[in-house]
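$ run holo --ligand "AN7" --emit tokens
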Amino acid sequence: MVNQPPKLIYKGIIERFREYLPVTDKTPIVSLLEGHTPLIPSEYLSEKTGLKVYLKYEGLNPTGSFKDRGMTMAISKAKEEGSKAVMCASTGNTSASAAAYACRAGMKCIVLIPDGKIALGKLAQAMMHNADVIALKGNFDEALNMVKSITSQYPITLVNSLNPYRIEGQKTAAFEISYVLGDAPEFHAIPVGNAGNITAYWKGYKEYKQVGKNTQLPKMLGFQAEGAAPIVRKKIVEKPETIATAIRIGNPASWKQAEAARDESGGLIDMVTDEEILNAYKLLAQKDGVFVEPASAASVAGMLKLSEAGYFKNAQGARIACTLTGHGLKDPNIAIGNVKEPTVLDADLKVILKHIGF
Ligand code: AN7
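-- output --
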């Protein structure tokens, strides 16, 4: 019938997983139809590791990263509570997401980013979505301390992952993976920065097991960048450094929760070098056709590191989900700086044919 609304329209993670989320009929849902991202099997990585490798491509969220899952919750709840402004510290993706969702909610958004250390695409997003962008002469950890101090004293809602609604939203990625695979995978590999996402996935997997949707829990495998690996080193890193600017964090807010996810699941948190990150970044793009930002490749870099060390030798054929947290277009400079340059040729058919081998 002509006027019947289509029944299968996807409405975003809050509507899809409403029963697992702290929302009510009164919560105004601010959504960009985030979530429902593909779980892409990787033949190449499966062959290389002897596992069944699945890539959870979170770069396909509306603002290009997994942050949108948490932001739809954080902004909806902020709106419900009557908040007029939100604020976050960010290595880039949180600011892009907060800025977009705040626009949609008609709220003001203030973001604190480390000056010169966020990827170009993310900066463009925050600016384009009209956030008040403050480039701090300091790193993410310093920015987060400022934001915590300001939001605890003034009427501005904090939307970093210290905001519990962020974690609630982000746990839905674990639900989606479980739904597609019919159960939780045996392993889950994930980049770790501020450690909100590993916390969220672990919560999601546990909740699905509690309600009987899953029969098992995965071992959580978290990966930090070697120059920003406080959890691995058991010590705050005062001056974190890595090419993967998204995870250039020296004092993660969810440090304890990440350790709990690791320990309760029987998994581990390890570190990968920038070289290993770039290698996985290129493999994903060039073998699987999946373009991610450098931080996202940490999950695959870590899986490959463990595979080479024999970690999976008694688990051949097991399923592993690797979260690919953000889209490759976020950080065009790293991409362009790490692969071969375009070949500049004259507009001459013969020259071009010669170049391509005819
Ligand atoms: C692509 O945007 O912290 O361990 O301020 O953007 O949950 O922090 C981003 C983090 C991994 C790490 N991959 O996740 C921010 C921010 C990408 C990211 C992480 C981030 P968490």
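-- notes --
The two ends are 57 Å apart (CA to CA).
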